[in-house]
Structures are given as structure tokens and as C-alpha cells.
Amino acid sequence: AKEQGRNRYHYYAKQLQERAVERLEIETALRHAVADNLLSLVYQPQLDARTGTVIGLEALLRWNNSDGTPYLSPLQIITIAEKNGLIIPIGEWVFHTACRQLRQWQHEGLATPRLAINLSAVQFEEPGLVQLVQDALQKNDLSPDYIELELTESAIMHRPDDAKQKLLELKKLGVWLALDDFGTGYSSLSYLKLFPIDRIKIDRSFVNEATTNNDDAAIVETVISLANNMRMQVIAEGVETQEHVEFLLARGCHEMQGYYYARPLPADQCGKLLIPGFVT
Ligand code: C2E
Ligand code: CA
Ligand code: CA
Ligand code: CA
């Protein structure tokens, strides 16, 4: 029995060690990826389903192998990067790259919609955030109303009082604020009216089941009327079928994002969806 116990101990110790080594390898690889510009952004269109117009783009992080397959998912990257501090340079890179791309499209004479950028909880609490946003706008000569920041409920609810202050500072810059994955976090509805939120994004888990599950349908309906009553915009993510589109339109939500319309696209392909037009 003692022998067995020792073997088991060795087994677990070895596993732990392997996992630690693996984590270190991934961290090192991520550092190189940042330094060598191996990260990239894709852009997923957001549409007004009534007209089929592209009204927004969401920038999404990618880290691909040279053959184009993903090396790590964005959620894995963000989770690791939040633990080792790389989230700060990665966040800066995302912001500057997305803003530069938007400016590039404008230089090409394309009418650009607003561009949504994701912020994790750690990024949101970082003292340099307001400055980062300001710098990226200034450097790329962008009007702030082209930019929307996507935050989750948990990022905001962690320290609601500080969060409110920070949100007001960001609003003062003139950017839009969206509450991402709405309904999945621990939200108290009363804070919604205290925070300067412009748009609610209904989480795709509810959207996906809304046409087959009564509870999800009720949640989606409730979020839409909540947004309407509080004079906030509302967008549904994870729209995958014609049924989803019809369900949402019938209930007064016309902003949509999902595979039904378009997958996240590399910049050159996304640019083809934008129409020539005047820019401000
Ligand atoms: P998210 O912000 O909720 O982004 C939407 C996710 O849903 C994206 O996954 C997108 O590819 C996926 N999606 C879009 N339409 C559909 C659909 O119709 N069906 C389904 N099943 N999925 C759809 P992705 O790109 O894998 O990103 C995952 C998460 O990683 C994001 O969730 C966001 O939380 C995080 N993330 C991505 N890029 C960044 C970034 O630059 N910064 C930060 N902080 N987080 C990021
Ligand atoms: Ca998002
Ligand atoms: Ca989301
Ligand atoms: Ca999500």
C-alpha cells in the first residue's frame, strides 16, 4: 500500500510538473507572439437586420499557427495574459491595431461603422485605460463616436463605485459603452441605471435557445424591453438562423451579430463589406 501511495505521489507530482512546464512554455510563447507580432485581429460585422446595413464591427483577437489554425483561443490567451501581466501590452496592441485599421479603411474612402473593442476586467481596472483610449484616438485622428468599449457585468460589478467613476471618464472622451454577455454575470438591475451604458449585448446562449426554449425566450424578451424602457440600445449576439432573426425582429431588437450574417473576418475581407462614402 505504501509503495502504491508513493507511486501515486510520483504520478501527481509529475503531472503537476508537466503542467507547470507547459504553462511556462505557453507564457514564453505568448511573450514571443506579442514581440514578434504573431497576434492578429478579425472583425465581425454587426447589422441592422431591417436594412441589412453594417452598423458596427467587433474586433476579436486571434493567435494562429502559420497554417491558419488557432494556436490558442482568445479566452485562453486572455486568461493567461491576465495572470502574467501581458494583458496590458496585448490590450494596447489590440486598441492601437483596431484604431489604425479603422483609420486605414477611412483613408481608402470607405464609410466605417463603429468599432467595438473588448476589455477584460483587469484591463478595465488598469489606471492607464483612459489615457490609452485617448492616445489611440488621437494618434489615428479618430472621432470617439467610432469607438465602442465592450465590458462584462463582472468587470463592472467587481467594484461598482470605482467602475462608475471610470465609466464616466470614458464617456467624457465620447466613446460608446456596451455591456457584453448580458444576463450571464451576477447583475443587479438597479446599477444599470446608475452606469452610463449605451448598449446591452444579449448573450448568445440566450439568443441561441430563444426559438426552442421558453425560459430563454422570456429572458431575451425581458432584456429587450428593459433596454427599451431605459433608453439603451440592444444588440443580439450569436444570431445563427433565420428563426433567430425573425424572433428578435418581432420583439423589437434589430441590431444583430452572428454567423447567420457573417463570421469574424480578416481585415481585407471585412473591408469588402464596407461601402464607399464620406467620412468625418
Ligand atoms: P465575446 O466578446 O462574447 O465575443 C463573441 C464571440 O462569439 C466570439 O468568439 C465570436 O467569434 C463568437 N461568435 C460570433 N457569432 C457567433 C455565432 O453566431 N455563434 C457562435 N457560436 N459564436 C459566435 P471568439 O472570437 O472566440 O472570442 C471569445 C471571447 O474572447 C470573446 O467573447 C471575448 O470575451 C474574448 N476576446 C476576444 N478578443 C478579445 C480582445 O481583443 N480583448 C479581450 N479582452 N477579450 C477578447
Ligand atoms: Ca464582446
Ligand atoms: Ca459577448
Ligand atoms: Ca461571450
From TrEMBL:
Domain named EAL: residues: 23-278
Protein name per UniProt: Diguanylate cyclase/phosphodiesterase
Organism for this UniProt entry: Trichlorobacter thiogenes
Region of the whole protein represented: 447 to 726 of 737
